[in-house]
Amino acid sequence: MSSFNLKQLETCFKQPTIKNTFLGLYETLGTLTAIASSPETIKPSEWMIQLKASPDTDLAFDSEQQVKELSVNLIAWWNYCMQLFDEGQQIDLPVKLGLTPTGAPNKALKDFSNGYLKGFNWLSKLWQTKIPDNDSDQARSLSVLNMILARFVNEKAMANAEPELVRQLPDMDGCFQVLPGLISAVGMLGKDLSTEHEEIDEKVTPIQVEKIVGRNEPCPCGSGKKFKKCCLH
């Protein structure tokens, strides 16, 4: 399993094609963290389209190298989260997530939170089938995490929508301090509820690539096969 390289991923997300095709870097990582927490394993071939900037955006890349750097690092982060949650360990969030000197969430934290909520909403029906009782401790754990993330995204809107619930939360710094533990707890819960869990090797994961690789060229996923006999179909 390849290790996650944040600097390499930051470089990828500065490139115009990637910026126009995908969500922002930290929104993407947040979405993947939520997907890794799912009570059922969602494969990269299923979640890749959830990372697009809009549903109408086509997946497009400048080169085979760009495809590899992006896909390998995204899958490495997803695998990192999956492994931690499966082993019952606490996640280390990207270091750029934090609070401003005035105590407000910085842009990276807002983007990550928004991405996590996006990923969770995509899988909300799946969670509901696993946790049908809204009054259970499991459901409350999900609710608290989502409230804190929504507060990071837009504190004023959250306070207007759920003033009593917001008053029960810690202050902004307290919310940030408990965030890694809450995300990990929900991830562990997802693994406990999972009916199956298999690690996907990023080297053989189909990645959709449009109009970049020739039919007879090596597939960019790294399988060693020709593109026409691997990820083309």
What does this 3D model show about the protein?
The protein has eleven helices and no strands. It has 233 residues and is mostly helical. Residues 196-204 have low confidence and may be disordered. α6 (107-122) crosses α8 and α8 crosses α9. Helices cover 56% and strands 0% of the residues. The longest helix is centred in the N-terminal third of the chain and has 24 residues, at 64-87.
Keywords:
mainly alpha, globular, 233 residues
Distance between the termini: 25 Å
Q: Regions with pLDDT < 50 over 5+ consecutive residues?
A: 196-204
Multimeric state:
single chain
Please identify the structural class as seen in this structure.
Answer: mainly alpha
Quick one: how many beta strands? 0
> What kind of sheet is the major sheet?
none
Question: Helix count, per DSSP?
Answer: 11
Rg, nearest Å: 18 Å
